[in-house]
Write a structure and sequence with these properties.
Layout: E1 4-8, H1 12-22, E2 27-31, H2 34-44, E3 48-51, H3 60-69, E4 78-82, H4 87-95, E5 100-103, H5 108-155, H6 163-179, H7 183-192, H8 205-208, H9 216-223, H10 225-233, H11 239-250, H12 271-285, H13 297-306, H14 314-321, H15 324-333
Parallel strand pairs: 1-2, 1-3, 3-4, 4-5
Helix pairs in contact: 2-3, 5-6, 6-7, 6-12, 6-14, 6-15, 7-11, 10-11, 11-12, 12-13
Length: about 325
C-alpha cells in the first residue's frame, strides 16, 4: 500500500510539479490554504507533509506550529518547500517543528530522496514507539502481578487462601468511587491496597497465628507491622508503590487520633489509608481468624456505624454504608 503525501502550496503550479515527481510512488493529497491543510491532516493522517511557507491567511510556520500542537497530527513529519533559504528562515522552521527544507525551484532527485529518507525514519520511529508501548504494558502488568502476589504472601500468615486482600481491595475501589475520587485514582487504590499488610512478613508466626488474645508485648510487636511494611515498600516516585507505602504505614491510624503507629488524626491520615481502614476492618471482622470466629455482616456494619467519627473518617464510613449491598456481593463472590 502506497504511503500518502500531503502537498500544501497556494500556487497550483507548484503542487503540480511536486505531484508529478512523487505520484508514481505515493498517494498524493493537496491543499492550497493552511486551514484546509490542517483539516485534511487531522482527518486523513498523511504520512508526510510538504509545506510551503509563503501563503495567504496562514503561513507555513503557523500551519506547522498548529500541526505539532495537535496530538492527532504532531507525529507527521513536515518538510518545508520554499524559496526562503536564509539561515534565519531555516532556524525558524526547525523551531516550529519542521524536520527538513527543500528549496525552490525543486530538484526531483532531492525531493524524492528527502521524502524517502524521512518516511523511513518516521516508520522506524513508529515501530520503536509500538515496541516501547508493548514493553511498557508488559512491565506494568508484571508490576501489578508482583504487587498482588506480595500482598497475598503477607496474608498467608493468617489467612489460608489470601482472598482477604482481594476482597478488601475491591471494597476499597467501591468506597473510593462512592467517596468521589476519579476512576483512575480508584484503580490505583485497588491495585495498591493488597500491600497494606505486607509488614506482617516481618512478624513472628507465633504471634500472627496465636489462637488467643495477644499479651501486651505481643500486641506491641504486632503493631510494628505498619512500620515494617512502610520500610519494605520505601519511598518512591512511582504512584503505585507510593500509595501502597502510605497504606501500609497508616491503615491502623484512627480518625480520633488513638491509632498507631503515629497517632495521626482526621485529615493528617492520608485518604487512601482512611479508605483502607474501613475496608480492612469490615473484612477482618467478617472473616475467620485463628483467634476468632467471623462476625455477621449486620454486626460488622453496625460497628462501622458506631465508630463513624471515632475510628473512621465519617465521610468514608458514610460512603461504605451507602454501598453495603455492593460490598456484600463482592464478599460472596470471593469467599474463602
Amino acid at each position: 500500500m502506497k504511503q500518502s503525501v500531503l502537498i500544501v502550496d497556494d500556487t497550483t503550479e507548484n503542487i503540480d510539479v511536486l505531484e508529478a515527481i512523487l505520484q508514481d510512488d505515493y498517494k498524493i493529497k493537496a491543499a492550497t490554504r493552511g486551514k484546509i491543510a490542517l483539516r485534511i491532516a487531522e482527518k486523513s493522517q498523511p504520512d508526510i507533509i510538504l509545506l510551503d511557507i509563503m501563503m495567504p491567511e496562514m503561513d507555513g510556520y503557523e500551519v506547522c506550529k498548529k500541526l505539532k500542537e495537535n496530538p492527532l497530527t504532531a507525529h507527521i513529519p513536515v518538510i518545508f518547500v520554499t524559496a526562503m533559504n536564509e539561515e534565519k528562515d531555516e532556524a525558524k522552521g526547525f523551531t516550529v517543528g519542521a524536520i527538513d527544507y527543500v528549496t525552490k525551484p525543486v530538484s526531483p532527485v532531492i525531493v524524492k530522496a528527502r521524502v524517502r529518507t524521512h518516511l523511513a525514519l518516521s516508520n522506524q520511529q513508529r515501530e520503536l514507539d509500538i515496541q516501547v508501548k508493548e514493553k511498557t504494558s508488559e512491565l506494568h502488568k508484571s508490576r501489578i502481578d508482583l504487587v498482588q502476589r506480595l500482598g497475598r504472601a503477607s496474608e498467608y500468615k493468617d489467612n489460608e487462601t489470601g482472598l482477604h486482600v482481594v476482597r478488601m481491595s475491591k471494597y476499597c475501589k467501591l468506597i473510593a468511587l462512592e467517596y468521589g475520587v476519579s476512576d483512575k485514582e480508584a484503580d490505583l487504590i485497588e491495585l495498591a491496597a493488597p500491600m497494606h499488610d505486607v509488614g506482617k512478613i516481618g512478624i513472628e508466626d507465633k504471634i500472627i497465628q496465636k489462637p488467643g488474645k495477644l499479651d501486651k508485648d505481643e500486641w506491641e510487636r504486632m503493631q510494628e507491622h505498619s512500620v515494617i511494611g512502610s520500610e519494605i515498600l520505601g519511598v518512591h516516585n512511582d504512584d503505585l508503590l507510593n500509595a501502597a507505602s502510605i497504606m501500609a504505614l497508616q491503615h491502623h491510624e484512627k480518625w480520633n487520633g488513638k491509632g498507631y503507629p503515629n497517632g495521626l488524626k482526621k485529615e493528617e491520615i492520608h485518604l487512601y489509608a482512611r479508605i483502607v481502614a474501613v475496608a480492612d476492618v469490615f473484612d477482618a471482622l467478617t472473616s475467620r481468624r485463628p483467634y476468632k470466629e467471623p462476625w455477621t455482616n449486620e454486626k460488622a456494619i453496625n460497628l462501622i456505624k458506631e465508630e463513624r467519627g471515632e475510628h473512621f473518617d465519617p465521610i468514608v464510613a458514610d460512603a461504605f454504608l451507602s454501598i453495603t449491598d455492593e460490598i456484600i456481593k463482592i464478599q460472596k463472590q470471593f469467599l474463602d
